[in-house]
Automatic annotation (TrEMBL):
It comes from the Bacteria. This is Serine acetyltransferase. Belongs to the transferase hexapeptide repeat family. Signal peptide: none annotated. GO terms for molecular function: serine O-acetyltransferase activity. GO terms for cellular component: cytoplasm. Its EC number is 2.3.1.30. PANTHER family: SERINE ACETYLTRANSFERASE. It catalyses: L-serine + acetyl-CoA = O-acetyl-L-serine + CoA. Keywords: Acyltransferase, Amino-acid biosynthesis, Cysteine biosynthesis, Transferase. It comes from Garicola koreensis. GO terms for biological process: cysteine biosynthetic process from serine. Pfam families: Hexapep.
Length: 195
């Protein structure tokens, strides 16, 4: 996938996950989650080149100051990843995030060890993590799972789980919980704004 195609895909994913998004120009100019993801992609490419690790960390820290979102340049992030609002989001070095995942403000994907090993979470495709939630350690959250607001997850969870509480308990996600809470089409403006 080319550079411009990836940018368009990010913008579309943001629009689809945020019914308040009014157009491409607004998304590109003011969505700090999108800015943090774009900066991470640059930092991550540099991180993979041994002598460029320090510049990668500099980009990460400058982005943190500008957006309030800290993504370690070593984190692996899939396609169509959305950070909504974003202030206070922290994503650790060995975190792995699949495609079509979404995080809300105040989420921590943190480590639980000082060892140089896999010490941060893995979120499989389609995982949503609610505001203020903490997912700690090398746990794996199965595809299409949802982590509730302010939950503290310290154990892995299977596909289609809902994780709530401190410490988080999981249960199978019900069919109606896959439906969006808000119909994005109810907020649609002139389709020309999205071109």
């Amino acid at each position: 996938m080319g550079f411009l195609s990836r940018l368009r895909e990010d913008i579309t994913a943001t629009r689809e996950h945020d019914p308040a998004a009014r157009g491409t120009a607004e998304i590109v100019l003011v969505y700090s989650g999108l800015h943090a993801i774009w900066a991470h992609r640059v930092a991550n490419r540099l991180w993979r080149i041994r002598p460029m690790k320090t510049p990668a960390r500099v980009i990460s820290q400058v982005t943190r100051g500008l957006t309030g979102i800290e993504i370690h340049p070593g984190a692996t992030i899939g396609r169509r990843f959305v950070i909504d609002h974003g202030m206070g989001v922290v994503i650790g070095e060995t975190t792995e995030i699949g495609d079509d995942c979404m995080l809300y403000q105040g989420v921590t994907l943190g480590g639980s060890s000082l060892e140089q090993t896999k010490r941060h979470p893995t979120l499989r495709d389609g995982v949503i993590v609610g505001a203020g939630a903490k997912v700690i350690g090398p746990v794996e959250i199965g595809p299409e799972s949802a982590v509730g607001a302010n939950a503290v997850v310290v154990k892995s969870a299977p596909d289609d789980s809902v994780l709530v509480g401190v410490p988080a308990q999981n249960r199978k996600r019900r069919q109606e919980e896959h439906e969006p809470l808000v119909d994005p089409s109810a907020y649609a403006l002139d389709p020309a704004l999205f071109i």
